[in-house]
Amino acid sequence: MFIEENYETENNSLTESVKSEKTNRSQPLWLIVVLSLLAGFLGGASVLVFGQPYLKIINSNLVSQPTSLSVEPLRQVVEEESSTTEAVKKVAPAVVSIIVTKDLSQIYNYTGPLPFDDFFGWPFNFFFQQPQQRTPQGKQEIGGGTGFVINQAKGLILTNRHVVSDTEAEYSVLTNDGRRFPAKVVARDKINDMALVQIEDKSLPAVSLGNSDTLQIGQTVIAIGNALGEYRNTVTKGVISGIGRNVVASGSGGAESLEGVIQTDAAINPGNSGGPLINLAGEVIGINTAINREGQLIGFAIPVNEAKRMIDSYEKYGRIVRPYLGIRYVMVTPQLARTNNLEIDYGALLVRGESRDQLAVVPGSPADKAGLRENDIILEVNGQRISTEFSLVRALSRYSPGDSITLKVYSKGDTKEVKVILEEFKE
Hints:
Shape: globular
CATH topology of the largest domain: Thrombin, subunit H
Strand content: 25-35%
Order of helices and strands: HHEEEEEEEEEEEEEEEEHEEHEHEEHEEE
Structural class: alpha+beta
Number of helices: 6
CATH architecture of the largest domain: Beta Barrel
Number of domains: 2
Radius of gyration: 36 Å
Largest sheet: 6 strands, antiparallel, barrel
């Protein structure tokens, strides 16, 4: 009923409107002209008086409000871009290309280049290209990697060990502005894929080392390196995709386990090895080391805190000093425990090697002096559980020769604590 009444009212109004229009049409022409002029004047006046405030309201609703909603995201984008460029400006002058030079006859045969170590099927992230320049001595440039200055006063440069692994090759450093300096490999870390190179020039600035223990998944990172051994100081950007990854790098030269590495989707190409992975504050938080070609944008970097221990060791002793326990072992997994009827499904099981002289416990070693024996299982180091996620090597790397540690050991059905004094590892 209400709808019907409302409908009738609207019809009545419409009728009245039509009547009014017809009435207006019957008015004299002069009256219509006068009324039109008067309406125009009043209409113009209303625009002058009321138009400006009205337009302000329109502008407020249609322009100001949407702008206020989009300002914050826009500001965030601008701030991140600014942080990225500032971080690169801060670090890039300290990043160098490492050039390898060697007698060509030792590298190539009639069918092409001889195989080199590689990570995940790529040339070890260390790009070997056809020689482009011959030195006066008849040697040629065969490839390159990346490094970055960590000590300006000493001219020390950090890189990957596999970049400078050839003891018969010669190395030089090429700066971002085109200067070139002879380089000497002063230390190669046998535990981690890191090495130190030194140049006499002291003009290159050093990077700032961050804290890799505080990294967050999703955090923005930037990789800088000598991409493909050709494009110096190439910059790529991404995020931290994973933390504490354990991967095995294999190639023609064997296999190497990388523990606790950082995974990133920042593009890392052959030649990037040894380059810095940095945060938006311009601090190095990792050393770019490997990629997995089976996926897309899956790269790995050694946490910078691992490098700090190596650097401190070199600066203190003039060499890389690593602790030595003197054992041979395999990591215990649930599958290994089931297969061998072990009561423990984690830890490090002391075992013999394939040959008779590869004993589980080295005679006269710290482990031997502490009473460790074959088939013992090391469960903890100073309360830290040993597992495939946190291996014995990684645990021991946190200590120095001369440190006393307490091992929790499972031996012949009993669990006991054993104190060991670590010694220096010597090749």
